Structures are given as structure tokens and as C-alpha cells.
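B., you asked whether I could sanity-check this one before it goes into the benchmark set. Here's the sequence:
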Amino acid sequence: MAPRVSVVVPCHNGGRFLESLLASLATQTFRDFEIVIVDDGSTEPQTRDKLAALDPSVRVVRQEQRYMAGARNRGFAEARAELVVPLDCDDTLDPSYLAETVPLLEAAPPDVGFVFTHLRLTGELEGVVERHFNRFDQLLFNYLPYCMLVRRSAWEAAGGYDETLRDGSEDWEFSIRLVFAGYRGIELGKPLFTYAVSRGGMWMSRGARMHGTIWRSIRARHAALYRFPALVTLWRATRDEKPKLSVLSAAVLLGSARLLPETWFNHLFYRLMVMTRSRRIARGEIRSGLARSMAPSR
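And here's what the prediction gave me:
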């Protein structure tokens, strides 16, 4: 019989993380799931050896490197379950993650395509970050975690992840196509997903410093959604969902992105992120050993 859930793990030279990843999955109180690890062209001997030595219950599929989007697409295609969790090999799940998310999605109507939780940061940053979903807000910022419980049929309807994207925008762009394929999500307000933050990772450096570039590529793919009349219409349609952002915020962001050189917009956005993070550290919401190095320069 097919399992109720497939956990899909892209892995490119990530063998050093596999032990903690599998340990977190071993503690899941919900047990009807399979693990599919996509070896995305790993060249590191340590990773190749660890993958070869895994228990046969862990399914390993190998491919030439197709990067994160391609590895996730392969994992969804290989999944035997209708419900799928994409999980990077350096991140982990709380023991109750599947036990709490699976019943919500199984009981939801078909237009609910995903369930997501808040996330717990570990590594260079520590603390809890709340996530939320609103169709209007999601066009302007990525408020959804990449790790969600997703219907495989919703992934198919959205067309999967765009494999031409390799700059960290594949998750955000996929969520937009998921939403505008007619799916909505359920927020589970608990930090059941642990996200590892490293100095060179997407959270702290690349994604933050390239927000303008990433957002430009997304707007180019979905130009009709970003026309101002369409944004106003969407904001009105989602007012009852309490969006965090206003039409004025959208106008300012779009105007800045179009008028400023891309490098300026990227730098401006990054400095705003740094200041916001510094305020959250000062309030005790998150903790960081890098607070001094991330503070705005004088």
C-alpha cells in the first residue's frame, strides 16, 4: 500500500546533515510516511558513501545535477503518496509535525492545497518566526516557508517548480503559481519546522542581498498579476483575510523597483532587512551571535 505521506529530501553534497535529518524523521509520532532522498549529482565522497549505506527503507534516487527546483520536482514525481513534504537535508521537523499537519490537509476541501507552520531558527540566528498566507502579500514578499505539506495534485496543477530558477526564487515563484492555480493554504500557528541559518545561506546573505533581482524575475514571469489595477483588485478581494501590506506599500515597492537601479534596490532592501532584524534582536524575539556584524554601518 502507498504511504499517506512522502518526505522528499534534495541532497547535493549534504551527507554531513543526513544523520540529524533522519533522526528527526525517526521521532515523528505519525509513522505512515516514506523518505525519498534525491541525490542531485553529489560528487563528495562522504555524501556518496553515506547515501550508499542508508537503510533500504530510505529510497534514494539519483540524477545528474538539476539544482534545487529539479531535485524537488524529481522527488514529487517519485513520491508514492498524495501528500508530500519537501525538506532540505540541513533542516528538521518537530516530532509532531506530520501528526498535526496531515489530519488538517486530509480533512480540508480539495481547494486547500497546502498546510504550513511557523518556523524555528537555529544556527547563526535563533528564535521563532511566524509565517502567514495572503494572496496579495505573497506577491510582494515570500511569507511562506518552503517546507509545507503539499498535495501532489496541487504540485502537478501548478506545473511544479521552475527549473530555470537557480537563485533562491524557486520556492517563492512556485507558491505564487500554486496560489493562482486556485489553491489556498492553512496556517498552523506552531513552530514545527526548524530552519538552519548559516552566514552563507539564503536567509542571511544571498536571498536577502538579491531580493530585487529575485523579485524582478518573478514579476517578469507573472506580469499580469503585477499590473497595478490587478493588485488593487486583489487587495480588495483579500481584505477580509487581513493582509499585512497595503496598496500604498505595493505602489512604493513597485515604483522603487522600477525607478532605482537594481543594485540600489537590492542594497536598500537588504539594509531595511538588517535594521528590522536588529530591532527584533533588541526586543528579544530572535537571538544572534552576529548581531554586531549585521547592524547598519555608520
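One thing to flag: The two ends are 62 Å apart (CA to CA). Otherwise nothing jumped out at me.
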